[in-house]
Write a structure and sequence with these properties.
single chain, alpha/beta, 5-stranded mixed β-sheet
Length: 266
């Protein structure tokens, strides 16, 4: 099975801007603790990972970072939803919030600092129990994908015969699957797990990841001073995350939202 790993952000060299002063200074841990507030933002609503429901923000990422924030001695985590991933990054550069998390950030990113992966998404196969689990098992199958998506190109480029059926969105693809017109869907892991949790193991199965994409906390960095400040924040984030991964609390939280552990596995 084809496997490859996509990192959410590829760090560019600082080049000629090293040493230049930045108009926006990163918030170090002492600053965040002093304010009692860690300001976070996202753009892509992707339940059950993260979503806005009226004035409330909910999902795995919000609860995970709330727990991590308490371990960092930060009393409040605030969230903001921004219209587009591009606007999200502009707001980060302008200091409107301390960090962002999103699965659709524009690539490549430069002058950022990343946490360790908070979770992993990517492409999976959704099928009936006993159906295709790995990409080579899609040979000769009727496969549903959303038009113009990375999943469409992935299935189209598999080196064997299969029937690729294109739909406008996941809901239409799922309907075709549930009515028996499709053998499998190739789609985002979180969307598939949301359907799996609703329908149950007697109706559908979700494959292991066909490819993996890291979901990380991203902080702005445009000077050596800000790198140090970022490390003051992301270091404790990584320590708290490592503790949760080891003591079972990450697994319990992940199963609450997804029905399975969504940690990144090399």
């Amino acid at each position: 099975m084809l496997r490859f790993r996509i990192h959410l952000a590829h760090l560019a060299l600082l080049g000629s801007i090293i040493g230049l002063a930045s108009p926006v200074q990163a918030a170090g841990l002492a600053n965040i603790q002093g304010k009692g507030q860690f300001k976070l933002a996202f753009s892509t609503a992707q339940p059950p990972l993260i979503n806005q429901n009226g004035a409330a923000f909910e999902g795995f990422a919000t609860e995970l970072l709330s727990i991590i924030g308490k371990q960092m001695k930060v009393s409040t985590i605030t969230w903001r939803k921004v219209g587009t991933p591009e606007a999200l990054m502009q707001g980060l550069r302008s200091g409107n919030y301390d960090a962002v998390i999103d699965s659709q950030l524009p690539q490549p990113l430069s002058d950022v600092t990343l946490s360790k992966p908070l979770a992993c998404t990517g492409g999976v196969i959704l099928a009936r129990p006993g159906g295709p689990t790995y990409d080579n098992e899609l040979k000769g199958k009727r496969v549903a994908v959303v038009t113009g998506s990375s999943y469409f190109y992935y299935v189209r480029n598999l080196p064997f015969e299969k029937q690729v059926n294109v739909f406008n969105d996941d809901d239409q693809a799922l309907l075709a699957f549930l009515t028996g017109k499709m053998d499998a869907l190739v789609m985002d892991r979180y969307a598939a797990l949301k359907m799996f949790k609703a329908a149950g193991a007697k109706v559908i199965q979700v494959s292991p990841l066909l490819w993996s994409q890291d979901i990380t906390l991203v902080m702005n960095r445009s000077s050596g001073t800000e790198l140090s400040a970022n490390n003051e924040v992301l270091g404790p984030v990584n320590i708290a995350l490592k503790k949760m991964l080891a003591d079972g609390s990450y697994t319990a939280l992940s199963k609450k939202y997804f029905g399975q552990d969504v940690r990144c596995v090399l």
